[in-house]
Amino acid sequence: MFDIKWIRDNADAFNHGLSRRGLEPKSAELLALDEKRREQIAELQEAQTERNAASKLIGRAKSTGDEAGAQKLIDEVASLKSKIQTGEEALRALETGLRDAMAGIPNLPLDDVPMGKDEADNVHVRTVGEKPDFDFDPKEHFDLGEALGLMDFDEAAKISGARFVVLKGALARLERALGSFMLDLHTSEFGYLEVQPPVLVRDDALFGTGQLPKFSEDLYKTTDDFWLIPTAEVPLTNLARESILDEADLPRRLTALTPCFRSEAGSAGRDTRGMIRQHQFSKVEMVSLTTEGTALDELERMTSCAEEVLKRLGLAYQVVLLSTGDMGFSARKTYDIEVWLPGQNQYREISSCSVCGDFQSRRMDARYRAGGKGDVHHLHTLNGSGLAVGRTLVAVLENYQQTDGSIIIPDVLKPYMGGLSVITAES
Fold first, then answer.
1. What is the pTM of this model?
2. How is domain 119-423 classified at the CATH fold level?
3. Active site residue 202
4. Which of 20, 51, 173, 262 is catalytic?
């Protein structure tokens, strides 16, 4: 959400930012709505002033015995009261119209974000790690998991339909191990506070982080008007909603391991086999709440935290800077981390780390007080996957596979696996 005063003062910059998103100018439309709103406010204030003045004169007229004059004033106050009530309703409608018009406009990209239409225009930043060298043709994760008898999509389909999986035995434990390892790393070494948030949220929470109203079809809604979270970014960021934090307590860094739910609307035909694109998946999320001056440094730090997970697991990956056409709705700048999957012979996204400026905090009224006693400003928010647990499981299976289909467990996960070092069909 944008500050309409900022748009009024920076209409050209606002329109330029939208053009970099591939959108038409919006400032004239928004400012016209705002002008009507401001005119309505002025009319209301004038009517309220007239009512207050007339109310004061009623007593004076009565004190002098001017009953006719007093009644005339009473009638005038009643008329003004009706006019004010109608005006307040009109003002609420104008404010709702302006809010709705602004709610569907994405955040503006930073100047160093590359122009582009889609992922083909993303810019490579760095490649880290060595791809494994196999003396056999590496298999994809679903072939490996099914051959082990520990990954079953058919059983899941009987229960829930397509894009679900049942993990068993050592693979179920491996996914749990990955989530625990990520949380332990982020909390013990990187200063994130572990949170266990609700996974059912209200409309306001999803509006605050930008999923509503634009992306409702990508979400799951219950019959009693709760929404299943698509990412823990939603409840974690909303912990600051309608609050004023102390600048001394910033940055506030939060992390959570939760199930996530996405309808995958619009992805028909993409990744129909396997665990890459599921309706339900586990993810470790990182959220930072900070100030404008530290937000970009925090983005680099958050990205490095996500990268460290892959480094400790010994997985090769690359970092790309998303173009304006591939960037998320609420983001000003985003790095994607893509892990190497030898079974697919390509890099696939495993984390996105974004800085959102004050775009989300304005939607949820999340603020901080400078210096503890100074001016109040909107927080700058960041979010990133640290990592998507299911996709990390996929990467481990494909990168640590052996010729007989068994899976070597990375050293950092062995303490979480009860001494198991290799996953076999007997595991």
1. 0.92
2. BirA Bifunctional Protein; domain 2 (3.30.930)
3. no
4. 262
The 10s digit of each residue's pLDDT in 130-140 is 999 999 999 99
CATH number for 4-103 (one of 3.60.21.10, 3.30.457.10, 1.10.357.10, 1.10.287.40): it is 1.10.287.40
Active site residue 262: yes
Domain assignments of the chain as residue spans, ordered by start: 4-103, 119-423
pLDDT in tens, 44-83: 988 888 777 777 776 676 666 666 766 777 777 787 888 8
Catalytic residue status for 277: yes
Spatial CB neighbours of 44, under 8 Å, sequence gap ≥ 6: 84, 87, 88, 91
- Please identify which of the residues 173, 332, 363, 391 carries the catalytic annotation: 391
